[in-house]
Amino acid sequence: MPIPKSHPRYLSLKIRKQLVEAMEKGLVHETGLIAHGRGEAFDYLLGEQTISVANAASRVAAAALLYATHPVISVNGNVVSLCADECISLANAIPATLEVNLFHRTNDRMVALAQELYKHGAKEVLGKKASAHIPGLEHDRGLCDRKGIFSADVVLVPLEDGDRCHALASMGKYVIAIDLNPLSRTAKTAPLTIVDNVTRALPLIEQWADQLKRKRKDELKAIINQWDNIQMLGEVRSFISKRLNSLV
Ligand code: ATP
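That is the input. Now the predicted structure with adenosine-5'-triphosphate docked in place:
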């Protein structure tokens, strides 16, 4: 059924439809829909907007990706289905490597997601060749590409799970998480968390990258060093509670 543009929840309904269709095409795992639901609930509490600390975090993310020697953008089914173009555009702008990395990994879904990215214009997509394993993660969840995530110094992980985020950080990587839930293990484990919807955060990181790309390495480093993720998560919690108290 087509969603009328006049519907007050048009965007939210459109995104749900997009994800259901992506699941039917084999791009999104069933649990991806549930994960989206959790994200949606937090987006509702935030007022479906990029709050100022998320904007500041996106600026630091751009600085970290530009500063990196080997930046990688790790994508899953939800991310490709919602923002394939934004991922590719950001990867080109930095430049960074794109890698598909799945919690529920199957060969079919790895191939389908890479094909989807190529269809949208990606130059190279890693992930299918599982040539390395992230230490501390059992089974297929730890599989990755030696030339990609395994050897990256900075990894952008939109919608990651807490375990993998922790394992990547334990490898010494600078992990940038995008997660609408400021209470998730991922949000608390990453040194830099953007508490925002991935659909808003990715284009914003690219806008900041465009503004910061002429900065010297020491200037980028200074931007990264001044970031305090724990303090920022506190600011998000207080934003949400103030907003809730002001609503009737
Ligand atoms: P953790 O292991 O970090 O505690 P989790 O078990 O709560 O995570 P997962 O199911 O692994 O969550 O991943 C889903 C996460 O992605 C949720 O925290 C949810 O808030 C977030 N999320 C879902 N959709 C979006 C979106 N569009 N933009 C940003 N974050 C999202």
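Residues 35-36, 38-39, 42, 159, 161-162, 178-181, 184-186, 197-198 surround adenosine-5'-triphosphate (CB under 6 Å).
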